[in-house]
Amino acid sequence: MFAPGENGPEFKKQLNEKTGTQFIFDLVYGYWALDNGMPGYTKDTNIAILYTILNQRLFRDDVNGGTWLRVDLAGSWGLDNQSDDPSSLYVGGMGMCSGLHTDVLDAHDAALLEVSVKQFFARKRAMVAAGMIKLNNYFDRVSHARFTNDNFESSGVLPLPYNNLALVGQYELNRDNWVTAAITRMGVRWGMNPFNADHANGYAVVGEWGHLFHEGKGKVRISPFFCSQDGLGKDGRMHDRNAVGIFGSVEYQLNDFVRMYGRAGWASGDYLRCTAEASVGATINLIPSRPNDYLGVGIGFFKGAESGANALVNEFEKIVELMYRYQINDYLYTSVYYHMIMDAAYRDKDFAAATGLQVGICF
Q1: What is the mean pLDDT of the chain?
Q2: How far is residue 342's CA from residue 316's CA, in Å, rounded to a whole number?
Q3: Full 3-state SS string of 253-291
């Protein structure tokens, strides 16, 4: 279940047994247009996105799995003067508690999202990872689609920071059940030294029980968590605040052409990015002779958090995302996206929309 080399769909290159190397390199051009966005934000954006992952075997152990290094690097850069202005970048232009585009860091920024060492043992049934961790590599991630809403890709309730100090452990109980646990530091900025957080200092503990059913066609995850951070309260002063919550998700491959997922979660704190969520989605292969092309549909309801920095205008934000991915050849693909945003959490508008186009080179 946690096989070294992670030979999953995200990797273009399968593991080279001789060198112990596996990687993906994804370079994307993206265009986004906002309709009824917030004043002061860029309406039309041209941006380049880079995402790379490297798995490198450090010490070989064919019985237990060995020792591995994982490095995730991402970056995004505006391609014109308007798109290169961080203060008006479109990702903040809707007042949403769910993110609009998960691959964009900033108008011109790059960051190491993960630099970790993984040790496999117990005949490849267990793994420990330590270092600067991207936690949604290990918890609740939709494995069969590339939506561009953050909360359709992974949970908005779970505290899953990027590029922060963490320790993760996973153990396969049997063929169909596994458990995962992590402790992570919170409150670090993109690309910054994880020892030098400038706000929201704290930590989180996240657990997961996972279960495969129907001969592996279905997957269930249940995740309790605890989070403690300092932050700005409703009185405008800094406070230590705690939150507990629980989250669950299910994925199911209905047939050779349709895969579905559903999520629901709740958190007690009033300062997390999202304090309740419920969403469903599916990917549909419309052309059987083209298995890498698919239509994606996601529908979600998300409750934002009210704090000193955020005045909650609408209690439940409603999102619909439609997307289609077309694989041109082994290395080139294009995707189109359409977001409908209704009752965004932090703005007094009933409706807004975002339309996107991506063209990517992946090898």
Answers
A1: 85
A2: 9
A3: ECCCCEEEEEEEEEECCCCCCCCEEEEEEEEECCCCCCC
Q: pLDDT per residue over 59-95, tens digit each? A: 999 899 999 999 998 889 999 988 998 888 887 778 8
Report the distance separating Cα 298 and Cα 144, nearest Å: 13
Instruction: Determine the 3-state secondary structure of 120 from DSSP.
Output: strand
pLDDT in tens, 121-137: 999 899 999 999 988 88
pLDDT for the residue numbered 166: 94
Contacting residues for 62 by C-beta, under 8 A, at least 6 apart: none
Compute φ and ψ for 88, nearest 5 degrees: -125, 15
- Could you tell me which residues are beta bridge partners of residue 54? 23, 71
3-state secondary structure of 80: coil
How far apart are alpha carbons 209 and 179 in whole angstroms?
Answer: 5
- The pLDDT-based confidence of 183 (bands split at 50, 70, 90) is very high
Residue ranges of the alpha helices (H) in the chain? Answer: 150-153
The closest alpha carbon to 162, from 192, 142, 140, belongs to 192
* C-alpha–C-alpha distance, residues 363 and 172, integer Å: 31
Compute the CA torsion angle 135, 140, 145, 147 (nearest 10 deg).
Answer: -70
More confidently predicted of 226 and 197: 226
CA atoms of 63 and 122, how far apart (whole Å): 8
CA 193 to chain centre: 21
Nearest to 262 by CA among 275, 249, 246: 249
Q: Helix (H, G, I), strand (E, B), or coil: what is residue 152?
A: helix
- Three-state SS for 107? coil
Q: Which residue has the tokens 């596994």?
A: 178
Residue 286, Cβ neighbours under 10 Å: how many?
10
Within the chain, strands assigned E span 21-35, 44-59, 66-78, 108-121, 126-133, 164-174, 177-186, 202-213, 218-232, 238-253, 258-267, 276-284, 294-303, 316-327, 332-342, 351-362
